[in-house]
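Inverse folding, one chain.
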């Protein structure tokens, strides 16, 4: 297949879904993965209905065995993955006074180790020009987030992983970058147990210089750019996409 092979984790909804649709629309073969089977299959159907190419695989990024098996299959069938969007993530609201080892571990397991699990087996077969994009957060780059210390920790860890991997693989022509979204209108943001809840737009917009939430497609477009040859000299960076929130003076 001469299409690029684009592997996306957590691609059934939100930013992952928007990224899958974006890569599908530009003619890549999208490997849609998620723990949400129905949602993931619906994304594949949407890409295919629009004339694109995609396939769904159930993948829980907490499983090294499952990630290894999927990536091995992709390496065998396609000769390697061209783009990885390590996107799957959870943000559980837990005050530090109630934090257990299990909850702490769960967040790092999905948000940080989950990225390692898909990237590690893919790297040996990735070729010159390949690209990896990891989802961090403004809660990893700039802000502390109360009742989300485990999340901020994981998202800061993503930045270290991006920088280290970028340097380690630069000579092989594999670029590694991150995206740090601000407040983006997704299920994660709108869930009060995870983030700001249904009033997210009212709560956050006054502090955002652009006075609105971001849309998933506005993150997907930056991911698309980072994965393209237009970003051929860009590696080891984390691009903040937040409507001006972090440079603002509030
Ligand atoms: N929405 C925001 O405002 C925002 C801000 C900063 C960073 N982010 C990051 O962007 C990424 C996408 O977030 P979103 O807002 O689209 O979230 P979302 O909750 O809408 O989607 C998250 C996706 O990850 C999947 N997922 C969760 N656990 C998984 C697991 N164990 N294995 C595989 N998939 C799993 C979910 O099923 C879902 O498809 C996350 O890493 C998130 O932390 C989001």
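Residues assigned per position:
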């Amino acid at each position: 297949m001469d299409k690029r092979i684009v592997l996306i984790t957590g691609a059934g909804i939100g930013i992952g879904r928007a990224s899958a649709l974006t890569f599908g629309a530009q003619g890549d073969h999208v490997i849609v993965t998620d723990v949400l089977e129905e949602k993931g299959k619906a994304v594949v159907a949407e890409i295919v209905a629009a004339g694109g190419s995609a396939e769904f695989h159930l993948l829980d990024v907490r499983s090294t065995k499952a990630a290894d098996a999927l990536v091995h299959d992709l390496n065998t069938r396609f000769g390697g993955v061209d783009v990885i969007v390590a996107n799957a993530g959870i943000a559980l609201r837990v005050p530090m006074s109630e934090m257990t080892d299990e909850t702490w571990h769960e967040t790092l397991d999905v948000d940080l180790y989950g990225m390692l699990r898909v990237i590690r087996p893919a790297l040996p077969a990735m070729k010159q020009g390949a690209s990896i994009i990891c989802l961090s957060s403004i809660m990893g780059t700039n802000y502390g987030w109360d009742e989300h210390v485990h999340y901020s920790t994981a998202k800061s860890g993503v930045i270290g992983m991006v920088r280290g991997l970028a340097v380690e693989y630069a000579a092989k022509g594999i670029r590694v970058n991150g995206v740090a979204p601000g407040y983006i209108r997704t299920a994660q943001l709108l869930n009060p147990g995870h983030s700001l809840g249904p009033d997210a737009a009212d709560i956050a917009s006054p502090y955002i210089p652009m006075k609105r939430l971001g849309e998933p497609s506005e993150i997907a477009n930056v991911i698309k750019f980072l994965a393209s040859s237009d970003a051929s000299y860009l590696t080891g960076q984390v691009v903040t996409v937040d409507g001006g929130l972090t440079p603002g003076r509030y």
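Strands lie at 5-8, 29-34, 53-58, 83-86, 131-135, 175-181, 238-241. The chain has one domain: 5-249.
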